[in-house]
Design brief:
- The protein is mostly helical and 169 residues long.
- The chain has one domain (2-167).
- The protein contains 6 helices and no strands.
- It has helices spanning 2-10, 13-16, 33-55, 62-88, 93-115, 123-142.
- Helix 3 (33-55) packs antiparallel against helix 4.
- The longest helix is centred in the middle third of the chain and has 27 residues, at 62-88.
- The chain starts with a helix and ends in a 27-residue tail after the last helix.
């Protein structure tokens, strides 16, 4: 629930901060799919950092488990969001909220399943997970500022990318 609650508030932080640019690293800057990925990523990453000291001696595969969970959330979001909007021809706020909640739950479930597995993964998976995590942190930190011209980054109403011109103050 903490991830979902915190992630939901990230939708509004940019506006609440009076459009303070540094907050765009973690806060949503428009209604694109990418910005909704950020709303699940940062709270989940922070939650993982909080969990680590308490779970590191109790579970196996912590880092690969968390990274797989972080990768699961945008995948579930894309499948559910683009699936239902393809079928209905529209997006609906209540469905978008449900997609967000289901993606966070799915990511946490995948993490739980992997780190409660009794078999320790080979060390190379820890290294791979660390590399993927660094890439994800970099992407989520920078791509709102410098978005590629890709459908994931396009605001659905204005067809603009990244920080919308209406926010430039």
């Amino acid at each position: 629930m903490l991830i979902i609650g915190f992630g939901t508030t990230l939708h509004f932080w940019f506006e609440w901060s009076n459009y303070w640019r540094p907050i765009t690293i973690i806060a949503a800057v428009n209604e694109s799919t990418w910005e909704h990925f950020k709303m699940a990523f940062w709270p989940s990453l922070i939650w993982g950092a909080i969990e680590y000291p308490y779970l590191r001696d109790e579970v196996v595969n912590f880092l690969p488990a968390k990274v797989l969970g972080l990768l699961t959330m945008p995948a579930v979001t894309m499948i559910l969001f683009y699936g239902y909007t393809f079928l209905t021809g529209h997006h609906y706020l209540i469905a978008d909220v449900a997609v967000f909640i289901l993606s966070v739950i799915s990511g946490q479930y995948v993490s739980y399943r992997v780190f409660t597995d009794s078999k320790k993964m080979d060390r190379k998976y820890d290294v791979l997970a660390a590399i993927v995590l660094v890439v994800m942190i970099g992407a989520f930190s920078l791509l709102s500022q410098y978005p590629p011209r890709n459908f994931l980054f396009r605001h659905p109403d204005s067809n603009e990318y990244g920080i919308l011109s209406e926010y430039d103050h």
